[in-house]
C-alpha cells in the first residue's frame, strides 16, 4: 500500500479523535487510504448499540476522572488511557477488508520482536509468557458507508489493567436489554513482552512496514473545521452518550423498570426524576459527568 498516508493526531480528547475519523470517512475522501493514530485521555468507549449502565462502572469513572464515550461503530466496550494506542484505517472501499489493518499491525509488531496472532474476529492476541495463556492486546470495530469504510481499534502498550478491569464492571442489574453486550477476554499489555516499547515506536514500525513517513496533523486542522467541531459536540452530548441506549429493563430497588431512549414513560431516566432511590443507588446510576460535558463545550 505505497499510496497510504499515516497521520498522527495531536489531540487526547476522544471526541475530537472520533470526529477526525468521521471527517476522513465522509468529508475528506480525497486523502484516502490513510491510517490515523491517536492516544486518548483515560476513558471507556462504548460500541454504538451498547448500554453504559451494563458496560461500565459509572460512579468509578467519575471518581477516577475517566470519561464516558460512545463511538459510531459497533462492537464492544474498550478502555483507553495514555498507555494505549488507537488506530483507524480508512479506505474508499465500501466493504471493510477486516484482515488488512491487523495484518499490517502484525507485521509491524514482529519488527519489534512481538509475535501477534490474528483471531477469527480480527482482534490481536499474544502469548503471555508468565502463564502460557493467549491474551488480547487489540480489539477492533468497523464502520461502512456507501462510499468508504474504516476499521479502528486499540493496542494496549502499557495501559493500567487494574483501572481497565474496574471501569468495565456493570453499574446495575439489567435484563431484557436490546443492547449488544461486550465479549470479555483476558488482556495483557505489549510492554509485558517488550519492556521499552512506546506508542511512537509502534507508529514508526507501521511506517517502515508500509514504506511511509508518518505525519503529524496540525492542531489548527481541528479549529478551522466547523464540521469536525460540530461532530465533536454531538458525540460528547448527553443525548448521544446516554439517551441513545437501546431498550432495557433495570432493577430499581426491587422494581423492574423499562427504559427506552433515555426515558421511563415521559420522564428522563435521571437522578432528578428518581428521588426515592437510595443515595448509593443514585450515585451508581447517575454520577456527575458535568465536568466532562463542560470541558468539551468550552474547548474552543
Q: Can you tag this structure with a few keywords?
A:
three-stranded mixed β-sheet; six-stranded mixed β-sheet; 11 helices; 17 strands; 300 residues; globular; alpha+beta
What's the Cα radius of gyration? 20 Å
Q: Please list the strands of the largest sheet in the order they lie side by side.
A: 10-11-6-2-1-13
- Compute the number of helices: 11
**Residues in helix, %:** 25-40%
Q: How confident overall, as mean pLDDT?
A: 93
Percent of residues in beta strands: 15-25%
Any idea what the shape is?
globular
Q: Pairing-aware structural class of the strands and helices?
A: alpha+beta
- The H/E string reads EHEEHHEEEHEEEEEHEHEHHHEEEEHH
Oligomeric state of the chains present here: single chain
CA-CA gap between termini: 37 Å
Largest sheet: 6 strands, mixed
Low-confidence stretches: none
What does this structure look like?
Helix 1 (14-26) packs across helix 8 and helix 4 (100-111) packs across helix 6. It contains eleven helices and 17 strands. The strands form five sheets. A six-stranded mixed beta sheet has the order 10-11-6-2-1-13, sandwiched between helices. A three-stranded mixed beta sheet has the order 4-3-5. A three-stranded antiparallel beta sheet has the order 7-8-9, covered by helices on one side. The chain has helices at residues 14-26, 52-55, 58-63, 100-111, 161-167, 199-210, 220-223, 226-235, 238-241, 279-285, 290-297; strands at 5-8, 34-38, 43-46, 67-70, 78-80, 84-91, 117-118, 124-128, 133-138, 140-144, 149-156, 174-175, 215-216, 248-252, 255-259, 263-264, 267-268. The longest helix has 13 residues, at 14-26. By secondary structure, the chain is of the alpha+beta class. The two termini are 37 Å apart.
Amino acid at each position: 500500500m505505497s499510496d497510504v498516508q499515516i497521520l498522527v493526531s495531536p489531540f487526547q480528547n476522544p471526541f475530537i479523535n472520533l470526529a477526525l475519523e468521521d471527517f476522513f470517512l465522509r468529508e475528506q475522501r480525497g486523502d484516502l487510504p490513510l491510517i490515523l493514530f491517536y492516544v486518548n485521555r483515560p476513558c471507556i468507549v462504548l460500541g454504538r448499540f451498547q448500554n453504559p449502565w451494563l458496560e461500565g462502572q459509572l460512579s468509578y469513572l467519575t471518581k477516577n476522572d475517566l470519561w464516558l464515550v460512545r463511538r459510531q461503530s459497533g462492537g464492544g466496550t474498550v478502555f483507553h488511557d495514555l498507555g494505549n494506542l488507537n488506530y483507524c484505517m480508512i479506505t474508499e472501499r465500501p466493504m471493510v477488508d477486516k484482515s488488512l489493518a491487523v495484518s499490517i499491525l502484525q507485521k509491524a509488531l514482529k519488527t519489534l520482536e512481538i509475535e501477534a496472532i490474528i483471531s477469527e474476529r480480527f482482534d490481536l492476541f499474544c502469548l503471555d509468557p508468565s502463564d502460557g495463556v493467549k491474551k488480547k492486546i487489540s480489539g477492533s470495530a468497523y464502520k461502512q458507508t456507501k462510499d468508504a469504510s474504516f476499521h479502528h481499534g486499540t493496542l494496549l502498550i502499557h495501559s493500567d489493567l487494574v483501572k481497565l478491569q474496574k471501569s468495565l464492571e456493570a453499574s446495575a442489574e439489567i435484563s431484557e436489554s436490546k443492547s449488544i453486550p461486550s465479549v470479555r477476554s483476558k488482556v495483557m499489555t505489549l510492554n509485558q513482552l517488550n519492556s521499552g516499547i512506546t506508542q511512537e515506536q509502534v507508529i514508526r514500525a507501521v511506517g517502515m512496514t508500509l514504506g511511509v513517513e508518518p505525519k503529524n496533523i496540525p492542531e489548527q486542522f481541528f479549529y478551522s473545521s466547523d464540521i469536525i467541531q460540530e461532530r465533536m459536540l454531538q458525540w460528547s452530548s448527553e443525548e448521544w452518550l446516554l439517551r441513545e441506549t437501546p431498550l432495557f429493563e433495570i432493577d430499581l430497588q426491587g422494581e423492574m423498570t423499562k427504559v427506552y431512549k433515555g426515558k421511563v414513560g415521559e420522564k428522563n431516566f435521571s437522578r432528578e426524576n428518581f428521588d426515592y432511590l437510595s443515595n448509593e443507588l443514585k450515585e451508581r446510576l447517575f454520577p456527575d459527568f458535568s465536568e466532562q460535558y463542560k470541558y468539551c463545550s468550552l474547548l474552543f
